[in-house]
Structure formats: structure tokens, C-alpha cells
Amino acid sequence: MNPGQSPDWLLTTVGAVRELMVKRLEAESLDGEAKREMEMALEELDVMWEELQGQAALLARENGRYAEFFQYAPDAYLITDAGGNIREANEAALELLKSVRDEVVGRSLSEYITPPDRVGFLTRSVGLMLGGTVKPLAWCAQLQPRGGGALTAEFSVRAIPLKKSGVGGLCWLVRPAA
Amino acid sequence: MKAELEELEAMWLELRAQVDELAGERQQYYDLFEQASEAYVVTDEHGTIADANGAAVDILQRRKRYLRGKPLVVMVALERRTEFRRRLRALCERTPGAQASWRTIFVAPQLRMDVKVSARLIERERSVGGICWHFEALA
Q1: Which CATH architecture has domain B37-137?
Q2: Which residues on A lie below 8 Å from B35 (Cβ)?
Q3: For the segment A24-39, what is each residue's pLDDT rounded down to a tens digit?
Q4: pTM recorded for the entire structure
């Protein structure tokens, strides 16, 4: 969606509804009173569309701005779903994991943790999901990027509602330990 | 007439649902920015502040409303501004060797703060769409 512009679906639906109302208005079967009522309804509808259109354009613009922040934040951020699978990863995270987006999205985040630390990592993750805490927690674990040496990283995590579904997910901030 | 009204209602509900979905999507990214424990600021490529999250407001010691539209460099101590501008220009011009992270000093009324700033360019179709900044207050 192009931020700042009305989404296509909005314009399509507005057009369809207007057409429906106009057709009804033009029908010969309408008496004077019914015609006036339809005209008034059409005007009201126009106002509502404008409001909704404005709301959608603002949301699209803001969504674009904050999505861009996520994508280009200087820190590595990942979003996982209830199953621990990566839903989103920003540019810094892809660099840290030495992977491209298609390789990362859909994989379990625990696959990027070295085997000795994996059980502990999973235990904490599941605990967070079950506990549903919104407070950020942090701990260190060995990160295993693809085709690179393991490194100690600090994982800060907090619970977030995932977009669209609204169900619980986790937002991870991953930083190489100093 | 009844059938048309039902169709109209269905379209309206669909439209409303799509706007709600958009709102939900926007909320997720907004929360990630605003509620992050780390201090983040988004500027344009000239360093003019577009947005600052709560943690950044705490570091910069200014109201969010004041920050919007101000050049980030005015938060930097006078003696460090030339260096800040030079680094910002090098970053945006993608000068080889340009560093994305450095130390500087932020000033606020009755306060001087040693900070580490990290920057990342927002890429938009091969041009710079802005900069995401991270600030870390140093002891």
C-alpha cells in the first residue's frame, strides 16, 4: 500500500456502493418522498466515505512510517508467533543472522541458538507465551548465524499482539554481547 | 430494496473490517517504536526530527512536540556539532568508511550527557528516505 494514498479496496467499495444508490435513485418506481430519502442517504454516505477514506489514508501513512522504522532500526528486531516461528525480521536482524529474509521467515528462532543453549531458550520462550507478560525480559544465549561462528548475544523480549490476528506474539531485540 | 440494503450493509461491514485491520497493523509497529525500552529517533536525511519515542524523549529532555521538526544537531553540544554534521553527511553520501556509530554529547538545560549514537539509513528505491537513530546514554 502506498502510504498517503487511499487504498484501492476503499475506492472500489466506495464506487460500488455509490453506483448501487444512484441506480436506485434513478429507478422510476420511486415516489417523491422515497426519492428525497434516497438523496439524503446518498449525501450521508458521501460524508461517511470521506471520513473513512481520511481515516484509512492516515492509518496507511502512519503504518508506513512505523513499519519503516521497524525495518531500518539500527538494532536487530524479530517478531515470533505463538509457536516460536519468525514472522518478521528487520534488516539489522538479517545481517546478524547472516541470512536472507526468505530463509529466516517461517523458521523457528531456536534454530539460530546453539544446541547447548536451545533447551533453556525454548523454556524461557514458552514460559513467556504462557505467562503472557508484557514486561521486557533479557538474558544471554549463544547465537548461531548461518555459515558463521557462534556469538554471545543478549536477547530482550516482550509480549506483543501480532498484527491482523491480534493473538500473542513476541518481539525480540537481539544484540551481540559487549 | 431490502436486498440492496443488505448488500450495502455487507459492503459497509467489509470496509469497516478492512480499516480495523489497517489500524491493527499500524498499532503493532507503533507499539514497537513507542514502547521500546531503547531510545529511537527517526529523522529525514538532513537530520530533521520526524518522531522520537518515549525513551528518546527521556534522554533528550524535551517534549515530543518540541522535538518534531527540529534539527537533531541542535541537541548536540556546540563543540561537537561540526563533527556531527560531517558524520551525518558522510553517512548519507555513503562515503566509504563512514561510521554508523559514534560518541557525542547531548545538551539539555542544565545537562550534558555523553551518548553513543547509532544510525541506519532508511532505504527507499535506491535513495535515502531518512535515518533511524538509536541513542545510548553512557555513564
Answers
A1: 2-Layer Sandwich (3.30)
A2: 158
A3: 667 656 677 777 877 7
A4: 0.79
